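USER: Please consider what follows.
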Amino acid sequence: MVFKLKAMYYILFYKTVENYVERRAPFREEHLKLAQQAHQSGTLILGGALADPVDGAVLLFKGDSPKVAEDFVHHDPYVKNGLITEWNIRTWNVVIGNE
């Protein structure tokens, strides 16, 4: 009997710099392209900035390991250009709604 492991969910938390909304403009197109590619590949499920105040962002990934989120971080122009002051990835054990 072969058991297939279910994909896990990983939440990527970003903390952003002050004036993030204004400062992200030069990098936004490249960031959104990266996010769209991850979404189309099925690894990025949801993502977006937190509001009131805009001081962070949350991205939900699905994959076999946290590497799916780590790869995103290492390619993200927001991270590369200092708009993200801190990031961390947490495994999310989904019990309702998990396929």
